[in-house]
Amino acid sequence: MTEVTEQRSSSAPADDALDPLGDLDATDTQKATKNRAKVGSARPSSLLYTYGPGAIMDLPHFTVMPAGLDDWEKVWARRPSVPTIHAPRLLDAVRRFPGQWSVGELRPFPWAPKRTQFSKEGDDLGVPARVFPQWLRCPGCDLLGPLTRFDYVNTNPFRPDRARFEHVGCPRAPKGRKVGIQAVPARYLLACPNGHLDEFPYDWWVHEGGSCPTPGVVSATLKMTERAGGKGASATVHCAQCAASRPMNQAQGEVGRSKLPACRGRHPHLGMFDPRGCTAETRLILLGASNLWFAATQSIVVMPEAEKAVPSTLGFELLEAVGVKRVEKYGDDLARYRDYLDEEESPLVAWSDDQLAAAIAQAREPEPTVEEQFEALAQWDPVDLLVPEWNYLQKDPIGPRHEGDALSGLALTKQPVHADLTGGGVSRVLSVDRLRKVNAIVGFTRIDEMERANDMPARIVPLTRSGRPTWTAATLDQGEGVYLQLDEGRVAAWEGRVLDAPSWRAGAVDLWESHRQSHERNFANRYSETAVGDAESRFKPPRYWLLHTLSHVLIREMAMYSGYSAASLSERVYAWDGTDDRPPAAGLMIITTASDSDGTLGGLVQLSRPENLQRVIDRALTRARRCSSDPVCGNRVPKDPEDFLHGAACHTCAMASETSCERANRFLDRRFLVDLPGFAGYGFFDHGA
């Protein structure tokens, strides 16, 4: 569990790095009332996908925002060296995102294991965070004010969960109460589609764009009363001096936006305002809203032969080994580099002259312009990350639990395919006895998730103040999985039937065309204010719908037998049409991983055995034929103006948790797996030949 450390003020100058662990340097002088820095902990996976820099993390008694990566440097400086994660293929993908060109390292979260609960290992590490929002409310007397109006209490270094803010002297506190009333975060914020987030201006709001007119009042005393149990914008803000009041529900919706102030371009995780300013409209957003923070991440399963240094990362490895000044001094002289690397006994000595020359050229080339970075990202297909994995999975392991190499940690066993599965279209099964998955964060978005923001490069919020990060945070997860592959010939034949449905479905609903048109409407109608571009390029082919739906029903079924919860299982879908650069793919991998342990327990591997897998697939397909929401679910076909991106799939039968699905429960339809009443002919496992 990675510790989360706190600094109270989020208005520090941009060049003033957070050092919330600074009080640990003076432990001998600390007294019982000394504020402790540690306020909580979280798993690395949570800090990557749910509570990363710029997100708001719920603690037992208040909320914090993990700071940008600049502030992590102060923490890493406490150690003589900084650990890194070796994943050149992922590093190359990260560097394709605008603003990430300078990234040369993937670093784990600042954490170290402890021998015992009370030992000191790792006390010098933690993720820096700011208290946010910094406006709190006393539930006793309804006082609404900034942190300075409340007292911070955190005296037990072994109980960070007791850290809290109190309103000492609350007039409504019970008589004889020795501690103050615990304050809670005020739950209203301002956000904009460009990723900015700000405190709600309560004083400005209650006085309708002005300040308190009471003579001599510099800072008005505000109160917030709640009704309807705190659901929605149900509060009203009051000024104790001038008796003005204004309900928060006036700030909701399209009409409410016109009453809100302009966006100030604030990035609280960086402690700064966007120097470019912001012209986007602000909107009211509640603390804890699901669209407050969307992680922009990339991930790979580490594969043998695929994790060699690639041309775009060679230069960074050379820079790390010899330093920027020597690169400038040595120029293109390979001999001088060789001499230095020999003296330092660097592993880069093993590079060929071609590799070294490529590294020198890459290290010396100027940074690409923003336009060039945008163009490179537009030309890059994320499927490229999956192709090396797919290619390696086509090779037969030499024997049981065969390891490709020690660096990847991947161990595979080829399993016989049960006769019933062969007849059903399954052509290949591997048990993934051990694997490593590396996940990296490149930024985040607000309001719209990364894939639904067409101008995504401009909307991804940076993780550093400089905009030139030299590293980014990543996790190295270890686990296991099951890989299965469908027969390409049968998939191609089935795909042709789906695309040519009018020839054999005369007068009936063309299911595939309905999905395609719904996707176009969704692209045009989605919440993003910048939805422009080509909708067709984002629409997945029929084989993806098939494999994706199969993956979901298998996840639900495997959770009943593997010993893992459905939320701890995730998918990796290999489904794309063939091109000149890559062959077609039709396979899926269901995996479970853990980022803070040495691996998992083998429950999925057991399910890869022929009899077990045949039983799981047979039961999953049987369940897919019937949903308790049928016939509503089974007959669901999007019609204008509907724009949903799934068909016969709901939370009862096929949808999975957000931790499991790589597409947010889009592109799912049980009718592509099996025939459902009224849609005979679409099911692959009934008509795959």
From TrEMBL:
Biased composition (Low complexity): 12-29
Region (Disordered): 1-39
Superkingdom: Bacteria
InterPro entries listed in its UniProt record: DrmB, MZB
Residue ranges of domain MrfA-like Zn-binding in the record: 550-653
NCBIfam families for this protein: DrmB_fam (NF038324)
Protein name per UniProt: DUF1998 domain-containing protein
Species in which this protein is naturally found: Myceligenerans indicum
